[in-house]
Design brief:
Elements (H helix, E strand, L loop, with lengths): L4 H6 L2 E4 L3 E4 L11 E7 L18 H8 L2 E7 L5 H10 L22 H7 L3 E5 L17 E3 L4 E2 L6 E2 L2 H15 L7 E7 L10 H11 L33 H28 L6 E7 L4 E2 L5 E3 L6 H4 E2 L1 E4 L6 E8 L3 H10 L24 E4 L8 E6 L2 E8 L3 E8 L12 H18 L11 H10 L8
Parallel strand pairs: 3-9, 3-10, 4-15, 5-6, 5-9
Antiparallel strand pairs: 1-2, 4-13, 4-14, 7-8, 10-14, 11-12, 16-17, 17-18, 18-19
Helix pairs in contact: 5-7, 6-7
Length: about 475
């Protein structure tokens, strides 16, 4: 059952600017948590959020949520593919441990998820997902009393089912009312928004607003070739192409317009929680499954092939009602979310062999997660990496037999520190080898695909070796 607010809040710690640790004590009037909203977003770069320093003004509603939350400034997804990343979010373990090696591999029925554990503790559980690779056939429905994977329309540039933001919000509000009838009991509600995944098709006014800004950038008039595949460098992936457009500004404005749409829809969902009188009893965990390349390293409007900051750095915020907000500089991972919530709500500690940690445990701000990164099924080049403290070490498989490694600052992919810091490079190379031996498995999918699956996955590019 749900822990009382005193034990929850008395054990929280938050870091101010990553330096001082502030103890949170329980005060009078702090309510129980009745609703846990696990809010995940597809393809959202952290640097588009005002709470992470963006000056674009795209996310006022999310920024207001961030102002009430513990914001982790250095959070990472384990990969830049949706299904394995979300599997890690729900289980607190690397997806490869379950044989999930990409968007083709379902989560096995016996995988332990936060939904299973909360339901076993008499919580009601509900989910609303809007990306086709998260449909119930992929095993993510386990542990949910209600799992809504209705995908009412097709993407604009390929025959892929999806659900856009407004429909996702309506479904989420309906699930909220189903999960907490007459405000009784405790509810876990997981909502996954598909926006701003490509193709970028925001309402025309939102794109127009951003075009006015994008056209001031030095490369605004640059035109890119259209690629005959779903991902690759030097051009626009075919699944992103709208009206034959080739100009960089049009697509960047489209991405930012999708972020604005997303923000407005999340604002409506949060308002629905408030109008039901639940906000002071709602814990929110807000994350993205991965980011998106918008031209970094000449990679345009895609994800899945690289382990760059653009693709694997993500927002991770936790709002605990009654607890003061703060900012944390220690490295965090999506794999930390499930053990953190389970510790708060169920009083459990992460398993000894768990790669995820409790982010709100005493002194947690003085520690950091070590994050193993990997490109998985569909990537044309195998890449693995590790984020450790202020550094990142990435290795790329050359000629199918040897790994070429490179040390960089954690937040600066273009700065090579391998020669200037050989001892750090050696230490992280050894750490990466250890993690790869533990978690690396064949990237071949183990799913049995029917004709419809093969058609959709061909549209995605996965059956051609591409990975959007």
């Amino acid at each position: 059952m749900l822990a009382r607010p005193g034990p929850i809040l008395a054990r929280l710690r938050t870091a101010a600017a990553g330096v001082a640790t502030l103890a949170i004590s329980c005060g009078p009037g702090i309510p129980d948590v009745q609703l846990v909203l696990l809010l995940s977003v597809d393809t959202l770069r952290a640097d588009r959020l005002g709470a992470h320093g963006s000056l674009l003004g795209l996310t006022p509603h999310l920024d207001a949520l961030g102002a009430e939350s513990i914001v982790f400034e250095a959070a990472y997804a384990p990969t830049a593919q949706t299904l394995p990343s979300v599997a890690g979010l729900l289980t607190g373990r690397y997806a490869q441990e379950f044989g999930v090696t990409g968007n083709l591999s379902p989560l096995p029925a016996d995988a332990g998820t936060i939904a299973r554990r909360l339901r076993a503790a008499d919580w009601t559980t509900a989910a609303v997902v809007s990306n086709w690779v998260l449909r119930r056939e992929m095993g993510l429905d386990a542990g949910f009393d209600h799992f809504d994977d209705t995908l009412p329309e097709l993407e604009a540039a390929r025959p892929m089912p999806e659900r856009r933001g407004p429909d996702t919000t309506r479904a989420a509000i309906a699930a909220l009312d189903l999960c907490l009838p007459e405000r009784r009991g405790h509810c876990l509600l997981w909502v996954h928004y598909q926006d701003p995944h490509g193709p970028y098709t925001p309402p025309a006014p939102l794109r127009a607003q951003r075009l006015a800004v994008e056209r001031q950038r030095p490369d605004a008039q640059r035109e890119l070739p259209i690629l005959g595949r779903s991902f690759g460098g030097g051009g626009i992936p075919d699944y992103q192409v709208i009206d034959g457009r080739k100009d960089v500004a049009f697509y960047r404005a489209g991405y930012d317009g999708e972020v604005s749409l997303l923000d407005a829809e999340i604002g409506k969902l949060l308002d629905a929680i408030r109008t039901r009188g639940l906000w002071e009893r709602t814990l929110v965990a807000f994350v993205a499954d991965h980011g998106e390349s918008l031209g970094e390293d000449d990679l345009w409007f895609g994800h899945g092939e690289r382990l760059s900051e653009a693709q694997v750095r993500v927002p991770l915020w936790i709002r605990v009602p009654g607890a003061p907000p703060g900012r944390r500089a220690d490295v965090a991972s999506l794999l930390d979310v499930a053990p953190t919530l389970e510790s708060l709500l169920l009083g459990t500690s992460p398993a000894r062999d768990s790669p995820g940690r409790d982010l709100l445990a005493p002194e947690a701000a003085q520690q950091s997660s070590t994050v193993y990164l990997a490109t998985l099924q569909g990537s044309r080049v195998r890449r693995i990496g590790v984020v450790d403290g202020d550094f990142k070490y990435l290795a790329e498989l050359r000629d199918g037999s040897s790994w070429d490694g490179r040390l960089t600052p954690r937040n600066a992919d273009d700065t090579d520190l391998t020669a200037p810091a050989p001892h750090v490079a050696g230490r992280l190379r050894a750490r990466l080898e250890e993690l790869a031996n533990r978690y690396d498995v064949s990237p071949e999918p183990r799913a049995q695909l029917d004709a419809d699956d093969r058609r959709h996955l061909h549209a995605l590019g996965y059956l051609e070796g591409d990975s959007p």
